[in-house]
Write a structure and sequence with these properties.
394 residues, Rossmann fold, D-amino Acid Aminotransferase, Chain A, domain 1, seven-stranded mixed beta sheet, five-stranded antiparallel beta sheet, 32% helix, globular, binds adenosine-5'-diphosphate, binds magnesium ion
Length: 394
């Protein structure tokens, strides 16, 4: 019997639409001789839907109709098996829609890429592809990941973390950095809410913009002679490979959401096809030594964060200082970064097979970890008295 893969996409995130493209692209490329694909669309409200329509890109032009024609589900663990159950349940007959063996999350940004969905899968006992809870959460927080990377000797730009609404933000930033600086919401993606400030007035605008997207902000020096290089890594603790390097090409000072998802698509077909069609130089025209250095930094960083599955790691090259900095992690990258592996000679289909294989391997390893410890504490426990059960723990 084929392995049943739940392909999750959409989600409560500013990158909802891009995720639909990543998800359906993956669905199209999975090896159907080994896997049955069950597309599961997460709405912006966090509801799960499945059905034939959910698997068709054209259906997303009219989402209310798509939802009417699809089946809303919840996931339930019953004795170690994970079932998709119709919600609301049918009054008569079974509400079971099907069973899942493994999840392939293709949800970008908050609630999907940050450990939330991974935590949900863990809790219901569904093996899943990609980074685990901790590496997803660290990969999503632009400040925490810098702390971990610094500790592991990987070059990152100095940065200041600030709470939204900090009245002394501008003073703190000016005391630490010279202009220009760049202000980012701490945990978003796709360049949403990011801007460069060249002076105090610009800084106030940049802070105000970023604050509308997050409770926490990250400020760092803005590189003026900037070249961006991205490199992805596929693997886990048992071994990983780095992809080809790409140089994304943008039209603005900051590579914008439009550059990433609209610009590239416009030139080709008039419709966005996700990260795969972003204007890019692939392979990036950089000296071999630099390419080797970036690929080796990417592998070290993947290991430093404890990643698994696929992650795209983005670098900033400072032309003036001639330095390479790791900018950020994307633990569920646009288009799952398949085009970077394709450029290195790996077919998307094979990459997906490896991702699912690693997910099942991790689940098998976890099964051998002991989570229950038989004890007879409850046989004599009571909640009475000042000691209670806490008092019993020494
Ligand atoms: N320190 C920096 N100096 C100059 N430009 C930057 C810097 N950091 C980010 N950028 C620009 O902003 C874009 C988005 O920033 P990034 O940190 O990658 O956030 P996101 O998670 O939204 O992709 C980058 O692709 C790059 O074009
Ligand atoms: Mg980025």
């Amino acid at each position: 019997m084929n392995i049943r893969v739940g392909l999750f996409f959409g989600g409560k995130s500013v990158e909802h639409e891009v995720s639909v493209i990543t998800g359906l692209q993956a669905a199209q490329n999975i090896d159907r001789s080994r896997f049955d694909v069950i597309p599961i669309y997460i709405t912006k409200q966090g509801e799960f839907y499945t059905g034939d329509e959910v698997g068709r890109i054209e259906s997303y032009r009219d989402i209310p109709t798509l939802l009417r024609r699809s089946t809303r589900i919840t996931l339930v663990n019953d004795n170690g098996r994970v079932w998709m159950v119709r919600y609301p349940a049918k009054r008569f007959g079974s509400s079971i829609v099907g069973e899942l063996d493994v999840a392939l999350p293709a949800v970008h940004g908050t609630n999907g890429e940050d450990g939330t969905l991974q935590g949900f899968f863990n809790l219901i006992g569904l093996p899943y592809a990609g980074c685990d809870i901790l590496s997803s959460a660290v990969g999503m927080d632009k400040f925490v990941q810098k702390c971990v990377l610094k500790e592991c000797g990987i070059p990152v730009l100095d940065a200041l973390r600030l709470r939204s609404g900090d009245r002394e933000a501008a003073e703190k930033i000016e005391a630490r950095f010279k202009y220009p600086v760049i202000v980012k919401p701490i945990n978003l993606g796709s360049s949403v809410g990011i801007s460069v400030a060249h002076d105090r007035a610009g800084l106030e605008d940049a802070l105000e913009l970023a604050e509308t997207f997050s409770d926490s902000l990250l400020v760092e020096p803005a590189i003026e002679e900037l070249v961006e290089i991205n490199c992805a890594v596929l693997g886990d603790a048992n071994g990983a490979v780095a992809s080809e390097c790409e140089r994304p090409l943008g039209s603005d000072e900051i590579l914008s959401y439009e550059d990433k998802y609209v610009g590239g698509g416009k030139k080709t077909s008039g419709a966005s096809k996700g990260m795969a069609t972003l204007g890019r130089e692939l392979p990036a025209k950089i000296p071999d030594a630099m390419r080797d250095e970036i690929r080796s930094l990417a592998l070290r960083a993947f290991e430093a964060l404890g990643c698994s599955g696929v992650a795209r790691i983005d670098f900033l090259l400072d032309g003036k200082e001639k330095k390479i900095y790791l900018n950020e992690f994307n633990t569920i990258p646009g288009s799952l970064a398949f085009y970077l592996f394709e450029a290195a000679g790996m077919r998307y289909r094979d990459m997906l097979t490896r991702l699912i294989g690693m997910a099942l391997g991790r689940a098998r390893r976890e099964q051998n970890i002991t989570y229950s410890f038989d004890s007879n504490i409850l046989s004599s426990a009571s909640l009475g008295g000042a000691k209670g059960s806490k008092g019993a723990k020494r």
